[in-house]
Amino acid sequence: MISKKIKGFFYGADYNPDQWNKEIWKEDIRQMKVHGVNVVTLPVFSWAKIQKSEDEFDFSWLDEIIDLLYENGIYVNLATPTAAQPAWMSKKYPDITKTDMYGRKYKHGGRTNFCPNSPNYRRLSKKIAKEMAENYKDHPAIVLWHINNEYGEYCYCENCRKNFIKWLKEKYDTLENLNKCWYTSFWGHTIYDWDEIEVPSALTEILPGRLGGRDGTNFQSMAIDYRRFMSNSILECFLGEAEEIRKITPHIPITTNIWGICDKLDLFKWGEECDVASWDNYPSSKDHPSLISFRHDVVRALKGGKPFLLMEQTPSQQNWQPYNEQKRPGVMRLLSYQCISHGSDGIMFFQWRQSAGACEKYHTALVPHVGHENTRIGRELTQLGEELKGLEDKIIDSKIESKIGIIMDWSNWWAVEYSSGPSIDMTYIDRIMKYYKPLYDLNIPVDIVNPNMDLSKYDMVIAPLLYMVEDKAINNIKSFVEDGGTFITTFFSGIVDENDHVRLGAYPGAFRDLLGIWVEEVDALYPEMKNGIVVEKELNMGKDVYDCNLICEVVHSQGAKVLGRFAHDYYKGYGAITENSYGKGKAIYVATEPEEGFIRELMKKYCDENKIKPILKTSEEIEVTKRIKDNKEYIFILNHSKKPQQIDLEVKKYKELLKNQVLKGIINIEPKDVFILEEY
Ligand code: GLA
Ligand code: ZN
């Protein structure tokens, strides 16, 4: 339970009452009740309104609205307004605004325009957090703290440089060590004095847009260190506020709404510091539903599988995509249940009342410009609010259980995408999705895991493109396999250590003995090129030859069994897929990027071997997930397609909780509809 005060789902929105005259507040409350809203987030962007000058705090308007909400049974997710500092503050303390990668010092404007290493920003953000905690410590309406908003902007200023040097001194201790780890013998970059260190930016070692639009760098280890440092600097801003708040209201949990699954912050480290994980889900209508599921699974992983909170989604339309399609009827409800089915205990929106001015005025809200709830979207919101009430006893606090872990790691993400060669198409999340999606299609749940986590509860661990891997993680993975686990990894994995230095000897360095192979060459294909995988009989797949592309490696077996071989070119006949016995388990290597059908068959094979079964067998357009509580299973069936679909429930009989119906045998599900089944 996120808060003992709200025993059901969090259902509400970002609320900006300070954009409106007070006369409208009562009408807001009336409509909140219509939709069943039980919590609102405020005051996310009201720093300027609360603090007119350094010593003047005015909470009167906030007190008034919070009291009014509470009197009407609506709780508050109290936000610190530190994502947008007042103009007077930027003016008085010029160290606050950020400096971009091109060395351009920003003036006041926009939001998230602060340097995470600005001493004045740190001091003043802690101060407002403390003032708020003092002011609201006894207010019964407060159920959660929401620190800042969508952290994630980097800065490259002199204060950042100074703190970077401090951070490096702690990490490397001596310059000799730093020079070694940064490989500064290359291009005569030896550093003799800590003060010679510059931040990696477009003015120094970053090559903007060099890698097919992504930034490249001359020195990966330095650039990756800057990302680690920035993620940590921003986390220190969060922790500065959290520390003040925890001193005063230790009983109220703290979160921050993360901006999607972004490469800016090492979210596993952030998860350790939040009490509740929460995030903002703004898919484009062209995103495949499996990508949205994956993102939910990442957020669930941040607190080790505990229920998370969807902090923002739009009721229908966004304003910042190039084309802002309305969510079609039923889609908001479907996406909300998708989120719950992956572990969320709440559905919150941006925002409550649609702004009349500025850049978000065409972003849908719960109260549209027409001003009343009698609209298509209004009716959908009311219906969802009612449905969620009916589900709370069963679903709140239920968990997801999976037997498969997919490894994801931020340092690896940075290393992969800074790598100059072998291919600019070697992007990390896309490689993860190649393995996530077939399992999603098969209705087999997965957890996203960090390579250093305890893997023993899984039967299978998949590590797509785990290029950078530290010794500790290698040992962790090896013990998992020794104890009987099945490990699957792909091309260009195990290659470098945490300093981005190649593990010499032969590829795939870290995993050579585990996989029982060595790789002589790594070929990168142009997008229009392909090779093939000729499948050995033993693999027993649907087809004899499958396409593959992107990367093809020349693999020599040193004990591993070859299950598939390249079909063409000078490495024709060399292993493309290998399997090695190791301890009580197996380690499988996929030395190329096979077409989707191949990966699906491969997943099926190893799931079968490990007795991992789909929750239900359905068409790929149907998503099936499961939450479990007190030994009872709740199966979510989501029809993402535009047509009615049939599903075979096999022998069991179920009660469907949303429409309160009994279902068995072959059932029909309408387009965009949702079923939640409980065994009957
Ligand atoms: C983000 C922000 C909100 C709002 C929405 C609009 O998620 O957190 O303040 O700008 O985007 O989609
Ligand atoms: Zn800075």
Q: In CATH, what is the homologous superfamily of the largest domain? A: Glycosidases
Number of structural units classed as domains = 4
CATH class bucket of the largest domain: Alpha Beta
Largest sheet: 11 strands, mixed
CATH topology of the largest domain: TIM Barrel
Which range best describes the helical content: under 10%, 10-25%, 25-40%, 40-55%, 55-70% or over 70%? 25-40%
Question: How would you explain this protein's 3D organization?
Answer:
The protein has 680 residues and is α/β, with parallel strands linked by helices. It folds into 4 domains: 10-155 and 251-391, TIM Barrel (Alpha-Beta Barrel); 158-225, no CATH class; 404-609, Rossmann fold, CATH 3.40.50.880; 622-679, Immunoglobulin-like. Helices cover 31% and strands 24% of the residues. The protein contains 17 helices and 29 strands. Strands 14, 15, 16, 17, 18, 19, 20, 21, 22, 23 and 24 form an 11-stranded mixed sheet that branches. A hairpin with a 2-residue loop joins β7 (206-211) and β8 (214-217). α8 packs antiparallel against α13, α10 (289-302) crosses α14 (428-441) and α14 (428-441) crosses α17. The longest helix has 29 residues, at 220-248. The model has no long low-confidence stretch (mean pLDDT 98). Bound molecules: alpha-D-galactopyranose (GLA) and zinc ion. Alpha-D-galactopyranose binds next to loops. Residues 149-150, 280, 282, 312, 314, 318, 350, 360, 363 line the site of alpha-D-galactopyranose.
Q: What are its keywords?
A:
680 residues, single chain, 4 domains, TIM Barrel, Rossmann fold, alpha/beta, eleven-stranded mixed beta sheet, binds alpha-D-galactopyranose, binds zinc ion
